[in-house]
Amino acid sequence: MKAFLKNYRQSPRKVRLVADLLKGKRVADGFVQLSALPKRATLPMQKLLASAVANAKQKGITEENLFIQNITVDKGIVLKRSMPRARGSASRINKRTSHITVTLIEKASEKKVKATKAQKAIKKESTPKVKKTVKAQAAK
Fold this sequence. Notes:
CATH 3.90.470.10, rod-shaped
């Protein structure tokens, strides 16, 4: 599941500081971390993450199984402005923008994985015994 934020008016370098903290974490942990972080990019990042979760729910995936697989922050368009300087010259000011992409992945929780492995082991053990008893009953 993906979500995009295009032309966010903040430098990619500053937004990457927030994005790098979230990679590989659970979605719930990501929301907690974003709420405690004192950066300007946290609110748009929370909204983007909520959008990605909503996209996942549309496909029928529960939020507990979602992990942040990747967050990429790419360079967007650069608005060029000028600042008047001495003797009639001008300096350029670059107003940078960012393109942010969030990719979520579904992973089964560890408890469920252990439970399913235990169930498979029980099925493997019980299956030959059932076959032997059925064969023994058929022989009689």
